[in-house]
């Protein structure tokens, strides 16, 4: 089970850009599919977040949290602030077609629903959806 306490540790590792610690929360190999991104290995997970966080500061504010032995569901606001320009071309080159370009200094806030399928206490699959404004 990915409890709220464990999820808070996960988010702390994420915010600290400790991608090894983040990857430790996942089965090996993980399966993440969201906004056009398909991650199927521990290294791909680390590479994806290293690239993204090279361009933006990202934070997660949890609004609602629910968990069971097989699912953790998060209703959260994801805030990204560009520290370096991230163009449509750069996103597309990385297969990040569902992500939005952002220029240095810009801020994007998105309400997301994130579903974590849990297997033996680890994250097996991640799926995300954006709330419509």
From TrEMBL:
Q: Which residues form the SnoaL-like domain?
A: 8-125
Q: InterPro entries recorded for this chain?
A: NTF2-like_dom_sf, SnoaL-like
| Span of the signal peptide | none
Kindly list any coiled-coil regions of this protein.
none
- UniProt cross-references to Pfam families, sorted A to Z: SnoaL_2
Q: What superkingdom does the record give?
A: Bacteria
Identify this protein by name. Answer: SnoaL-like domain-containing protein
